[in-house]
Amino acid sequence: MEELIRSLPKILSAAGESGELDEAAALAAWKYVAGDGLRNHSTATAPPHVQLIEMTTASWAAVLLHAAAKFGLADHLADGPRSAADLAGPTNTHAPSLHRLMRTLASLGVLTEDAEHRFRLTPLGEALKTGAPGSARATLLTFGSGFFWRAHCLERDRWFTMRVSCLDSQRVAPGYVTEIAQRYGMDSNAYRVRVLGECPVADADTVMPASLVDDAMTRDVPLDPSMPVIWGVDVARFGSDASVLIKRHGNVVPEMPRRWRQFDTMQLAGALKSEYDSAGAGRPNLIVIDVIGIGAGVVDRLHEQNLPILGVNVAEVASTTGRYARLRDELWVRCREWLESRAVRLPRADDLRADLVAPRYQFLSDGRMQVESKNSMRGRSLPSPDSADALIHTFAEQGLGIASGMTSGLFDSNPVRMNLTSGDYV
Q1: H/E segment holding residue 370
Q2: Is residue 300 part of a domain?
């Protein structure tokens, strides 16, 4: 066995992989092939390069275990072995990605996998079940996100928290601080986390920096009654998604997002009509609804009841500026620019924050910017950003270069689309 493990880097190298990937792949293959034997094997007998890689990648295990706790995998496996395909629906995840996660958890000794690719809990994995004696699930969720993160980041103003910066510690050599600054930059997440002891701000390819969202959720901005009220609605496309309503009053989103699950077209239209009727003097100047999927039916029904509706398919309509692949991409950037004004306020809603900071972006070969699609996010085992999409819809009239008002001609049940022949909006 050890001869096979030692030969894996050479085998992979001959296949054309990079050296760094050779070692990582060798480690993963070694763990997977060795199975239970690895866990009963003394770490000191592992090849030296594998021992070092295990030390370097120790943080990966924390991320994997947090994901297992978040998805409740142990609870889903409590009654017996199941495949990743069986659990993809209940956990709202992408089946192939979930299989890779569970296979890696098997290499860590949390699960076992049988010949039919079904997974079963090990005695170690049993400790992840909710309510099990000595269950570690709550602890994993606390340290990975949730209350721990809120207390130290989003709601730091409400709690007494302590951080020890390397700059203030006599136990840290000055050379370490200099090394991290030179290697990653003082504005990097690595410097914030390793030197300052702060929470990371955002990944380099994330559309919405977490710092902008967090600042907006902790900022006190008064409501200006003279500003227009615009509602954005993202209509659920799949059973596990939620239909979400966001109410933006100028520079303030004064209420928590409203969510409805498993609502059909008429039920959602009725819920929105009820919200509109009960708003009184705070009724919106415009309600923007994405018409993809069942959204068109909601637009039609609310238009019949004379509500100020704008139906738009943001995934198909092109950007008006030409700088973005589609209108949806432009609206994400407009929302970010709104946050960058630092004169806006968002409610402290965990779902809204998670949705805003999740999507990534890329540039196409022609230079246009494209925000990650919902299908791509599901491929990363992330939920659909329903709350964020509802918020960006409130910027649709700016993106289309139109203005709301009872005489604007916006209140048409037909969604805004582009004629692919002429390039005109119809």
Answers
A1: strand 369-371
A2: yes
Q: How many C-beta atoms lie closer than 10 Å to residue 62's C-beta?
A: 12
On whether residue 156 sits in a domain, the answer given is: yes
Please check whether residue 307 is in contact with residue 275, taking contact to mean a CB–CB distance below 8 angstroms. Answer: no
Dihedral of the alpha carbons of 174, 176, 179, 183, in degrees to the nearest 10? -140
Each residue of 141-199: pLDDT tens digit? 655 555 666 666 666 667 777 778 899 888 888 898 898 888 878 877 678 778 888 77
Q: Beta strands 82-83 and 369-371: pairing type? A: unpaired
CA 372 to chain centre: 11
Alpha carbon distance 99, 115 (integer Å): 14
Q: Who's near 76: CB < 8 A, 6+ residues apart?
A: 82, 87, 90, 91
Identify whether the C-beta of residue 381 lies closer than 8 Å to the C-beta of residue 97: yes
Half-sphere exposure of 380 (CA within 13 A, CB side): 12
What's the predicted TM-score (pTM) here? 0.60
Domain presence at residue 253: yes
User: Which has the higher per-residue pLDDT, 9 or 62?
Assistant: 62
Same domain, 259 and 332: yes
Which residues 6+ apart lie within 8 Å of 424 measured at CB? 418
Q: What range does the domain containing 34 cover?
A: 2-56
265 Cβ partners below 8 Å, 6+ apart? 294, 297, 298, 301
Asked whether residue 67 falls in the same domain as residue 133, the answer is yes
Burial 94-104 (b: 16+ CB within 10 A, else e): bbebbbebbbb
In this structure, the answer to whether residues 121 and 191 fall within a common structural domain is no
Do 268 and 410 share a domain, yes or no?
yes
- 8 A C-beta contact, residue 128 and residue 137: yes
